Amino acid sequence: MLTLSFSTLPELVRLLSLLGNEQRLAVLGAIAAEEKYAREVAEELGISRPLAAIYLRQLEKLGLAEGISRTSDEPPYLRRCYRAVPFEVVLNLDLIVSLERSKDETG
Amino acid sequence: MLTLSFSTLPELVRLLSLLGNEQRLAVLGAIAAEEKYAREVAEELGISRPLAAIYLRQLEKLGLAEGISRTSDEPPYLRRCYRAVPFEVVLNLDLIVSLERSKDETG
DNA sequence: CATATGTGTAAAAAATAATTAACACATGTT
DNA sequence: AACATGTGTTAATTATTTTTTACACATATG
């Protein structure tokens, strides 16, 4: 399991704002049990395929999803699947305060 | 310390989107060490007083800040101070999945 | 070449959030 | 009544995010 930690406030904010959206949490939930590709997720959640792809990319970028290229004997011969990465974040006031402080020192 | 837990996905999303913003984290950081009133926070962070007040209210509403009315011998004779409530949130994939599930059952 | 099925990406439109200015109100003192 | 200092709230403006549509591309097969 991935235990997320943060060195900067913007990093933390990036994660929190990514997850502070029901749609993106739904995408994460959709790929928790088994890997899926973007079109599958889109159809399952009733959102457009490009949007599902964007969200999967964003989740992947933050380390919350893993992208895997899969090949097949029939079309499409190549597709990109994603599956959720088990993770844990501990968020508390001390963390926020210490990140604020280190921002001030850098600034 | 307050250990936050969630019964619904919207609740979780409300917290995450509230904190997924550098400005509001700054407000929380500003009142972590000692209580302050809205105008003080606004001046310290360089934002407008109504905005500081709105954020303090939002943080209070989610239990992350505590509002206290203070009286004084000179104007203003009454002012509302806020201080951060130490809190901790553990966020992980299992939580997200279980909240998604309970939403489906309710829906 | 066409086919099948999925993907990447950008522009544009729509929706939402952020933020301010303005104004009325609160409180006790003079 | 005026004063001092802060607050509550809303409408309007600005900024940001969400989301879609459209189009080109990827891949192997026929």
Give an overview of the whole structure.
2 copies of one chain form a homodimer. Chain A is α+β, with helices and mostly antiparallel strands. Chain A has a single domain, classed as Orthogonal Bundle (Arc Repressor Mutant, subunit A). The first copy, chain A, is built from 5 helices and 5 strands, in the order βααβααβββα. In chain A, the strands form 2 sheets. Chain A has a 3-stranded antiparallel sheet. In chain A, strands 1-5 form a two-stranded parallel sheet. In chain A, α2 crosses α3 and α3 crosses α4. The longest helix of chain A is centred in the C-terminal third of the chain and has 14 residues. The termini of chain A are far apart. Chains A and B meet through α1, α2, β5 and α5 of A and α1, α2, β5 and α5 of B. β5 of chain A pairs antiparallel with β5 of chain B, so a sheet runs across the interface. The structure holds a DNA duplex (30 and 30 nucleotides).
> Proportion of β residues of chain A?
15-25%
CATH architecture of chain A: Orthogonal Bundle
- Cα shape of chain A: elongated
Q: What is the count of distinct domains of chain A?
A: 1
Number of strands of chain A: 5
The SS-based structural class of chain A is alpha+beta
The helical percent of chain A reads 40-55%
Uncertain stretches of 5 or more adjacent residues of chain A: none
Span between termini of chain A: 33 Å
**Which two protein chains have the largest interface (Cβ within 8 Å of the partner's Cβ), and how many residues from each?**
A-B, 35 and 36 residues
Q: Which sheet architecture does the biggest sheet of chain A show?
A: 3 strands, antiparallel
Radius of gyration of chain A from CA coordinates: 16 Å
What is the overall number of helices of chain A? 5
Q: Largest beta sheet of chain A: what is the strand line-up?
A: 2-4-3
Described by its quaternary structure, the protein is homodimer
Write the H/E string of chain A, N to C.
EHHEHHEEEH
Could you give me the name of the CATH homologous superfamily of chain A?
A: Winged helix-like DNA-binding domain superfamily/Winged helix DNA-binding domain
Specify the CATH class of chain A: Mainly Alpha
Pfam families (chains A, B): HTH_5 (PF01022)
Organism (chains A, B): Methanoculleus methanifontis
InterPro entries (chains A, B): ArsR-like_HTH (IPR011991), HTH_ArsR_DNA-bd_dom (IPR001845), WH-like_DNA-bd_sf (IPR036388), WH_DNA-bd_sf (IPR036390)
Protein name (chains A, B): Winged helix-turn-helix transcriptional regulator
